[in-house]
From TrEMBL:
The lineage of its organism: Bacteria, Bacillati, Bacillota, Bacilli, Lactobacillales. One of its GO terms (molecular function) is hydrolase activity. Keywords: Hydrolase. One of its GO terms (cellular component) is cytoplasm. This is Alpha/beta fold hydrolase. It comes from Pseudolactococcus laudensis.
Length: 602
């Protein structure tokens, strides 16, 4: 089977290609820029071909050679189009309605030449149309709006008019058509990786910015969500399933199995370390306010509320045609990870993790590099996350050939905050889970708060004698001037780049002659825009002040100490201390030298 895929470089499309690359099929991907699809082709070079085109152009923008390649395909998967609910009518019409016309033109050519096995169109769960032709077959979509779509925003209107058009043309030309209607798509159920910042990303952006201080609609409303790898699995199964007379598949879970909007906002608030709104506002009233000035006042597009619904969706056909195990996954899981990932992207932009791979453990994000022998676990401190230790991990991996494991602690990086009566419990639980996955032992290396966390884990017997512990700048003895006494939410948010750099340099936290300083301080400054990271930093700073940390005589710790740190001091002349002429954040500013010392210790 040769599949022509439109929208392969999109949020859903990439995951579909990833899954289809493992199947016995050939893929032809229509892309605007082949360089953007190079990583997709690399998944299965012998099975994946690229053609250059444009969904919004006649003939899909294909030249003669590429069109000839496309015409050899016997199945079309169309999941293209932008995810931008603020599109104007002109742009939405071009992207969706005109795009569908050009897709159908090609589909009809294939049908005439050799027959098209199936056309699959990914639409959306709010589409009011199904396989009942009498509802849509007489609508002139290019000159009139179907009554069911009157008053809807251009994005939805054009998307669902294109749904009608493809149904009409498929019926006229006897082309088997499957329509998949997914709810709002978030990251996969393993890592939460959510590259698409529209949809659910917009909802998180609104909440983290404080623009939605109420619960919209109450318990009767919900925001249906599905993981990207699960919708991809439905699409792949639709490709291989036998052709049916009716193939409109709604991928919305039963209402009783989805969290209502109040429960979802509880999850968001806890993951983001912010207070949950207490006031519930009727949905109709909220839309009225947004229509008459509220949207301009808050900056929230009024069309963003259209994702919320109190409807019950007919998913019986989905239950009939797909395995129960897959149907049970319709309602998204690991939502907190997706929330944290979106917040990370809103805070820092796209930051790539290669050559690290990304997994999750105990609800937290964990990065890994392959290696042999006892793994090295690097635990970051405050004002940083796991990615700040990537250079150190790469150097250690090169020098020792060991596996490297770097978690994002809860509330930092791409890990959601975890609410707990004892603030340290989620952090100790994560260390315990990492330890449990390594029964043969590991080398745990903690920096600053991460070092304090490892000492606490050792004191509570989470770590055993077979686990070597190396402490990088452990916050043992506070100097007379209490470190971080300047910390407050207001001061951090208002601090200028110069003020931040002056404080870090004045207190020996990081040195001005280090090449990484500018990038690191920019990330620190950006982190203050995330209530999740900012509030977690402030909370753990208070916890750190109350921790009674000592270098136990019953446990051998190796210590690396930056002598330029003016905020902390080493309380004793500990025998196993290696002193560096560097600041508090030396593992970040000077990873190669740090790695060399650590390698000598292990």
């Amino acid at each position: 089977m040769n599949i022509l895929m439109i929208g392969a470089t999109g949020f859903i499309g990439k995951e579909v290609v990833k899954q289809l690359a493992l199947e016995d099929v050939s893929l032809t991907l229509l892309v605007r820029d082949q360089s953007r699809a190079a990583s997709l082709k690399a998944l299965a070079p012998s099975k994946i071909a690229l053609v250059t085109g444009d969904l919004t152009q006649p003939n899909l923008g294909l030249d003669e050679t590429d069109k000839a390649t496309a015409l050899k395909c016997d199945l079309i998967l169309h999941c293209g189009g932008p995810m931008d609910i603020t599109l104007s009518e002109t742009l939405a019409k071009k992207a969706f309605l005109e795009g569908s016309r050009y897709v159908m033109d090609l589909a009809k050519e294939i049908q005439e030449q050799k027959g098209l096995k199936k056309l699959i169109h990914v639409a959306g769960y709010m589409s009011p149309f199904n396989d009942e032709a009498s509802v849509w077959e007489d609508t002139d979509v290019f000159n009139e709006v179907h009554p069911a779509l009157i008053g809807t925003p251009p994005y939805e209107q054009m998307k669902f008019l294109s749904d009608i058009y493809m149904r009409q043309e498929a019926k006229k030309n006897h082309i088997p058509l499957a329509v998949i209607n997914p709810p709002t798509v978030i990251g996969d159920d393993q890592t939460g990786d959510t590259a698409q910042l529209g949809g659910f990303g917009l909802f998180i952006k609104i909440i983290r910015g404080g623009s939605l201080p109420v619960i919209p609609g109450g318990k009767d409303y919900r925001l249906p969500l599905i993981n990207k790898n699960i919708i991809a699995e439905f699409i792949v199964q639709t490709i291989f399933n036998e052709t049916q007379e009716k193939m409109t598949y709604t991928l919305v879970s039963d209402k009783a199995l989805d969290p209502d909007i109040s429960d979802l906002m509880t999850t968001i608030s806890e993951s983001m370390h912010i207070k949950k709104p207490r006031l519930t506002v009727p949905f109709g009233l909220l839309k009225f306010v947004m229509t008459f000035g509220g949207s301009q006042l808050t900056g929230i597009p009024k069309s963003s509320l259209n994702f919320l619904t109190n409807r019950t969706f007919d998913n019986q056909l989905t239950k009939n045609d797909f395995e129960p195990e897959l149907v049970s996954k319709l309602s998204a899981s690991n939502v907190p990870l997706a929330i944290a990932d979106i917040d990370f992207r809103l805070t820092y932009g796209d930051e790539f993790i290669a050559p690290y791979t990304r997994t999750s453990l105990q609800g937290a994000t964990v990065y890994r590099l392959d290696g042999k022998g006892k793994p090295l676990v690097l635990v970051h401190g405050l004002f940083s996350d796991g990615t700040d230790l990537f250079d150190l991990g790469l150097a250690l991996n090169k020098q020792t050939a060991r596996e490297i494991i770097i978690p994002d602690l809860p509330g930092f990086g791409r890990s959601p905050f975890v609410k707990s009566r004892d603030s340290l419990t989620p952090y100790l639980d994560l260390i315990a889970s990492i330890k449990k996955a390594m029964p043969e032992g590991a080398v745990f290396i903690g920096h600053s708060f991460g070092a304090a966390l490892l000492m606490e884990a050792s004191n509570r017997n989470y770590l055993v004698e077979s686990d070597k512990i190396i402490l990088l700048q452990p916050p043992l003895k506070k100097n007379v001037k209490e470190p971080y006494s300047w910390l407050s939410k207001l001061m951090l948010k208002q601090a200028s780049d110069k003020q931040l750099a002056h404080y870090f340099n004045h207190n020996g936290l990081i040195l001005t002659n280090v090449a990484k300083t500018d990038r690191y301080l920019k990330r620190v400054k950006a982190s203050f825009n995330s209530p999740r990271i900012l509030n977690t930093t402030l909370e753990l700073n208070k916890v750190l002040k109350g921790m009674a940390l000592t270098l136990s005589e019953h446990r051998a710790y190796d210590v690396l100490w930056g002598t330029q740190d003016k905020s902390y001091a080493l309380p004793i002349d500990h025998e196993q201390v290696i002193k560096l002429t560097d600041g508090h954040f030396f593992p970040i500013s000077n990873p190669l030298e740090t790695a060399t010392y650590i390698s000598s210790l292990i």
